[in-house]
Design a protein that fits this description.
Layout lengths: L5 E7 L4 E7 L5 E5 L5 H11 L2 E6 L5 H4 L2 H8 L3 E3 L14 H6 L9 E2 L5 E4 L2 E7 L8 E4 L3 E5 L2 E2 L2 E2 L9 H12 L7 E4 L5 E2 H7 L5
Parallel strand pairs: 3-4, 4-5, 5-6, 10-13
Antiparallel strand pairs: 1-2, 2-3, 7-8, 8-9, 9-10, 11-12, 13-14
Length: about 210
């Protein structure tokens, strides 16, 4: 069997956020990406699979992607990574009505800020950080072997909203066209919400992409 980085996903919270467990099949080391809610559910899957969490990664700082950071951090004591431009959002979870509605918990402070092009080691493999602003100033995507976690930048048949504070339609278009759609057509796109897709499918049928 071909050896490459793998992933599992589960849907959490009332906004149905995709939380991803990106793992090395040889060492079972994993990164927990966007634990938006229901930390107990995420932890149960980690334990069931025998994964060994080493990193906690946020594609961006919106509440529905960071709401269970505290649960994961307290259970596994692993470093939390986010882009510096979105780090202030980690401090304001419980100051918003949406945070209360979603049952989010205040996030711990970040341990590391992403740099564009940085490679993050998970077991014997790496994720590459791609800064993809637009949905938020510090939105990032993670490029693996044959897949990209696009956060709330690119969806199946859609794109992320840009009407929230710090959002920019111009930056969103640039991020999608210049950093994601330049990848091979067969590249699997794993978005922050909804079903997965491919670069080729979005290039040919996404009505928001010009």
């Amino acid at each position: 069997m071909e050896k490459r980085m793998k992933y599992e996903s589960l849907i959490v919270g009332s906004l149905e956020t995709n939380c991803y467990l990106v793992f090395c099949p040889e060492t079972l080391e994993c990164a927990v990406v966007d634990p938006g809610a229901e930390g107990d559910q995420i932890i149960r899957l980690i334990e069931k699979r025998g994964f060994k969490p080493t990193l906690l990664l946020n594609t961006h700082g919106h509440i529905d992607h960071i709401g269970a950071n505290k649960d994961i951090k307290e259970r596994y004591d692993i470093p939390l990574y986010i882009h510096s431009a979105d780090s202030p959002m980690l401090e304001s979870v419980l100051q918003s009505e949406m945070g209360i509605f979603l049952g989010a918990k205040d996030s711990p402070p970040p341990d590391h800020f992403f740099e564009d092009g940085e490679k993050i080691k998970i077991g014997k493999y790496f994720l590459k950080v791609i800064h993809t602003p637009g949905h938020s100033p510090g939105s990032v995507s993670f490029l693996g072997d044959g897949f990209i976690l696009s956060g709330d930048t690119l969806f199946c048949g859609g794109v992320g909203r840009t009407d929230l504070p710090g959002g920019s339609w111009q930056e969103m278009v640039s991020s999608i066209n210049n950093k994601i759609l330049t990848l091979p057509d067969e590249m699997i796109v794993l978005p922050g919400h909804g079903p997965h897709t491919t670069v080729g499918q979005e290039k040919s049928s996404n009505p928001f992409i010009t």
